[in-house]
Each structure stands twice: as structure tokens, then as C-alpha cells.
Amino acid sequence: MDHIHKFNSELTESPFLNCCVCDANFRDSGEKYVVEKSFKRVSENVQYSLYEYAICWNCAQTFQEKISPESNQAIQNYFMYQLANKPPRFFNEDQDPIEVCLSQCMIKGTNTSELTEYTMCGVFRDGLFSLEAMPYVLSAEVLEELAEQLSASTKDEMDDFRETYLGGPPELEELFKGRPVVFL
């Protein structure tokens, strides 16, 4: 089954075509890019997008360099600790690995359908999932735990990114203040 549509823009209902930072066109460029979408579930069958964006690999790397060394180390430690005790994922022959990855939080294992808020992230090249990284889902709980690990300067960089490139109403900006953007 084709899961790429889950990463389409909610506004255009089509794939992202440009980097939100440098406006580079993704179509047939051969360059990697990241799509991040965050959702809030309001009922069993209704959820809405809190924010979404696509960023080219070069701009993502430039942003990565702005993260403090302490925050980078804390993020690495968090994921290493959380994933070290999880058994490796194996997929049955009849399972779609992408569907499995998008069906639950990568860290907590909670089914996506049970999460009231979550973020999903995927790496793409030429409109297709990159073979270098499987897409994943992180629950709001994981994002809050990650945010606790970040230095003040890193939180400021992430807030600046969100304000500059994602915008939105002030009540949503306050909701995400200090929370990590996922393409870390």
C-alpha cells in the first residue's frame, strides 16, 4: 500500500514541492528532504494538522549545526537509552514495514490511533521514501521528554525556526514553545 500520501500537504493535498527555508524544488532534484507533520486528535475519527513542513537536507543540516553540543549529546543519549532496551522490529512477510512504522510511536510503542497528539517524520528523495531511513512517529510524550533535555539556546533556535517558517496563531505558537522540531 502507498503511504506517501500521508505525508502530503494538508493544504494542497499533494506532495510538498519546495523547501520551507530556501524554496529549493524537490521535484526530480535527486536531493533528500524531510517532511514533518504534527497532528492533534479530537475524536476517534477526527484529527487535524497542527503544523507541517518540508525542508531540504542541506537546510536541515544547517539547522542541525545550530543545536548546542550539549543538546546534541542529550538527544543521542535519549534515543540510545530508549531504543537500547527495545527488541528489534521484525516484519512478517505479509506486513508493510512502512505501515508498521507509522502505526505506533517509535519510542513508547503506543498505537498511533490511540495518541491524542503525535508527529510523524519521513525522509524522501524524488517524491519517494528514502531507503536510508524508515518514517517514524513520535508521541507528544516523547517530544516533551526530549524538550526537557534541550539547552535554552537550542530551544530558542527551534522556537525561531517555528516562528519564522511555520507561523500560525499565537495560541499554537505558545503550545509548541520549547518543543523540538523532529528532523533532529
Q: How would you explain this protein's 3D organization?
A:
The chain has 6 helices and 5 strands; from the N terminus they run ββαααβββααα. The chain has helices spanning 57-64, 69-84, 97-102, 140-149, 152-166, 170-176; strands at residues 32-43, 46-56, 117-125, 128-129, 136-139. Strands 1, 2, 3, 4 and 5 form a 5-stranded antiparallel β-sheet that branches. The protein starts with 31 loop residues before the first strand and ends in an 8-residue tail after the last helix.
Give a short synopsis of this structure.
It contains 6 helices and 5 strands; from the N terminus they run ββαααβββααα. It is of the alpha+beta class. Strands 1, 2, 3, 4 and 5 form a 5-stranded antiparallel sheet that branches.
Helix content: 25-40%
Succession of helices and strands: EEHHHEEEHHH
Q: What class would the helix/strand composition place it in?
A: alpha+beta
Q: What is the 3D shape?
A: globular
The rounded Rg comes to 16 Å
Number of beta-strand segments: 5
**Sheet of most strands:** 5 strands, antiparallel
Rounded to the nearest angstrom, the distance between the terminal CA atoms is 28 Å
Structurally, the number of domains stands at: 1
Estimated share of beta-strand residues: 15-25%
Uncertain spans? none
Number of helices: 6
- The quaternary organization reads as single chain
How confident overall, as mean pLDDT? 86
